[in-house]
Amino acid sequence: MSRPDLNLLFTLDVLLAEGSVARAAKRLRLSQSAMSRALARLRETTGDPLLVRAGRGLVPTPRAIELRERVGGLVQDAEAVLRPVEMLDLGKLVRTFTLRTSEGFVENFGPGLIARVSAQAPGVRLRFIRKPDKESTSLRDGSVDLETGVVGATIGPEVRAQALFRDRFIGVVRTGHPLAEGEISARRYAAGDHILVSRRGLEKGAIDEALAASGLERRIMTIVDGFATALALARSSDLIASIPERHSGNLRAGMFSFALPVPVPEITVSLLWHPRLDADPAHRWLRTCVREICAGSPADA
Asked: What are phi and psi of 115, to 5 degrees?
C-alpha cells in the first residue's frame, strides 16, 4: 500500500479554511487549475467530494466538516515540529494571547497578570473572553491559547490541565444585612432569601444538597448566570449570594462575607491548554506568569 502524499494535508487545510478554490489558490500562490487538480487528488484519496457546488459557491460535505478541525491540528503540529527552536527574547516578543476564563478571574487576577506581562514583554497583548461552556473546541482549533476553570467531563482527553488553586464557597451580603451580626447557623442561613448562580440555569446546586442533608431548604428568589450579577443584586438588596471566595475578592469589596455554615466541597481551578503548545517558549512563559500570579494573589491573605 503506497503512502499518501502528506503535502495534501496542507492543501486540504487551506481549502477547508477558505471554502473556495480561487481563494485557496491565491493563498498558496498556485494557479486555479493547479488547485483544482489538487482538489481532485484529495477527492480521490479521501473518497469524498469534500467541497460541492451550491449556487455560485462551494459548501463542505459532512466529511469535510469532520476533517476540518483534525486537519488544522495536524498541520499546526507539523509546523511546530519543523520550526527551529529559538531563544525567547521577551523584549522583542510581539504576540496576542487569547485567554478564555471563568467569571471573576479577570477581575481578581487580571490586573496582576497584565502588569507582569507588560513589564516583561511590552509587545504582548492579552485578550480575555468569557467562558460560556466547558467545550474544548476553541483550544483545539487554536482560537484560544489558555483557559481557566474546573475540569469537567466535556473537556477533551488530550487537553493539558494543571491545578492553579483551590476555592471554597462563601456567603456574601450587603453591609448592614441582618446576617452581618451574630452567629450564622445553618438554619439562620437557610431562612434568608437566596440568589443561585447557575450558568446552565439549574434550580439547585451543591449548597442545596448540603442543606438537605441537615433537613433544611433555602428559598431561592432568583437564578443568575454569573458571580458579578449575583453580587450586584446582593449589594443593593437583602438577598444572599453564595459564590467562590477567590474568584470574587475584588467584586465583593465593601460587602460582608462569611463562611458557609454547611460543608460544601471545594473546587479546583485549573489552567488548560492544547498539547501542541507544550513546547512553545512564549506559551510556556505565559503559563508560568499565570501560575505565579494565582499563587501570589492578594486574595490568599
From this structure: -65, -45
- Contact residues for 157 (Cβ-Cβ < 8 A; gap 6+): none
Using one digit for the tens of pLDDT, what is the confidence trace for 78-93?
776 776 666 789 999 9
Angle at 209 between CA 207 and CA 211, to 5 degrees: 70
Q: What share of the chain is helix, strand, coil (3-state, %, to 5)?
A: 40, 20, 35
Distance CA 1, CA 15 (A): 26
| C-beta of residue 217 within 8 angstroms of C-beta of residue 190 | yes
Q: Which residues contact 128 (CB under 8 A, 6 or more apart)?
A: 98, 99, 100, 101, 106, 110
- In one letter, which amino acid is 108? N
Q: How far apart, in whole angstroms, are the C-alpha atoms of residue 150 and residue 164? A: 10
> Is the pLDDT score of 171 beyond 90?
yes
Is the model's pTM score more than 0.85?
A: no
